[in-house]
Design a protein that fits this description.
single chain; 240 residues; alpha/beta; Undecaprenyl pyrophosphate synthetase; six-stranded parallel β-sheet; 10 helices; binds 3-methylbut-3-enyl trihydrogen diphosphate; binds magnesium ion
């Protein structure tokens, strides 16, 4: 079972357009399914689920679509967080939160604080997130915290400790719905050794059954991390 599953939730717009509905209706449908999926992941024993909700590039979309997405985010924090907290979900938001309206920032911090002690699963929502932004802010944070050191002394673990996902394991399984096979500036550093699962299923239709298909696929992968299959088999035999 992967410890950390990350999902690029794509295909809301196409789901709606296929039904002659506005793109925003697809976002509403997509958001409505999140809670059940989070609970499904918790039940499966996944400890970290990161969802790509809004990228640094998504500001370029039409203003009404951006404001619908922001509205859904606020609504979500208001309505669903209570029941998610009851289910043991800890919320963490990664991304440049300072880019959001003050009211939304305040709600994010309140929801994070209210769920900080929950342990069933960490739901990490990537909002105004970009993988390049994350790496750059990590370098800047490291330098600010270590003013006496030069960047020549910066190590990979030190950089990782300054990423927005500092307290989380690296991504084991990266899923993208909606048929595209690209990363779109998601968790670039953290997905260095992730298994990549692409499905044509559009996000509003991606449910527990679809997630289980990805988990089954994941269980059949051999994660070599640069080694040979023989080495990996040897190591697993030693453990057993
Ligand atoms: C949702 O899917 C992803 C978000 C940016 C919220 P899209 O809105 O990208 O849907 P498609 O790709 O246009 O179908
Ligand atoms: C990626 O989806 C961002 C999110 C899912 C939030 P996009 O639909 O924005 O990605 P591109 O533009 O097709 O690469
Ligand atoms: Mg898309």
């Amino acid at each position: 079972m992967p410890q950390h599953v990350a999902i690029i939730m794509d295909g809301n717009g196409r789901w709606a357009q296929k039904r002659f509905m506005p793109r925003t209706a697809g976002h509403a449908k997509g958001a409505a399914g999140v809670k059940a999926l989070v609970e499904h992941c918790a039940k499966q024993g996944i400890k970290y689920l990161t969802l790509f909700a809004f990228s640094t590039e998504n500001w370029q979309r039409p203003a009404d679509e951006v404001s619908t997405l922001m509205g859904l985010f606020v609504q979500y924090l208001e309505k669903e967080m209570k029941s998610l907290a009851d289910a043991g979900v800890r919320l963490k938001v990664i991304g440049d939160v300072a880019g959001f309206a003050p009211e939304l920032q305040q709600r994010i911090h309140a929801a994070e604080a209210a769920t900080a002690s929950k342990t069933a699963i960490t739901l990490c929502v990537a909002a105004n997130y970009g993988g390049r932004w994350d790496v750059l802010q990590a370098v800047k944070n490291w330098q600010a915290a270590n003013p006496q050191q030069s960047v020549a002394e910066l190590t990979e673990p030190a950089l990782a400790q300054n990423l927005s996902t500092a307290d989380m394991p690296e991504v084991d399984l990266l899923i993208r719905t909606g048929g595209e096979q690209r990363i779109s500036n998601f968790l670039l550093w953290q997905s260095a050794y992730a298994e990549l699962y692409f499905t044509d299923v559009l996000w509003p239709e991606f449910d527990g059954i679809e997630l289980d298909k990805s988990l089954k696929w994941y269980s059949q992968r051999t994660r070599r991390f640069g080694k040979t299959t023989e080495q990996i088999v040897g190591e697993t035999e030693k453990v057993q």
